[in-house]
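Thread: "does anyone have the structure for this chain?"

Original post by V.I.:
We have the sequence but no experimental structure in hand. Need at least a predicted one for the grant figures.
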Amino acid sequence: MCRLFDKDICICQQCQKLIEPKFISFKASGYKALAFYDYNEFIKQQIYLFKGCFDYEMKDIFLNLFIKEIKLYYSRYVVIPIPSYSKDDEIRGFNHVVEVYKNIGVRLLPIIEKTAHFKQAENSAKKRQDIKKHLALKEQVDLSKQRVLLVDDIYTTGSTMAASIKLIEKLNPKEIRVLVLAKTNDKDYKKPNTNNSLH
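Reply from O.Q.:
Generated one for you, tokens below.
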């Protein structure tokens, strides 16, 4: 039925059954936040194929089923992606966060940079707080009249998002909201991933 009414559907019926969007509302540093998916095994595998295995064609599957609604709802926002380290992007050939969200049809403003290779997945929840030492504003932009949408792929402990929010708050935006592909349950976060791949 989806394909009958929308020819742009890019995933098969089997994956449509497995992908299961949850639309999880939560707070990130006191701001309204939304995660499309629970970070379950299926979503984890898809993000790994896209981000860790450099499968660029996976970029559209995460938002495809509700892209029109996202475009409508966030049409008045500017999108600020949470950065990955530039050398990781060079190896991968693309920035995975930018590629997922650039199709929502709003202005992308990549003004935050990651200044060192600091992999959150390799660190404990306490050590992840150090991310704030490795994030910086690339340029000063007047956001006083702008609604800002901070976007990322996975929300785990929230330390990267919290550090990014503090940077953006300095630019006095009219509003801040957070949008992520997937969110882990706090009880599911146990130990860091020591795998050296880019995922």
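V.I.: this helps a lot. The radius of gyration is 16 Å.
O.Q.: and The longest helix spans residues 41-52.
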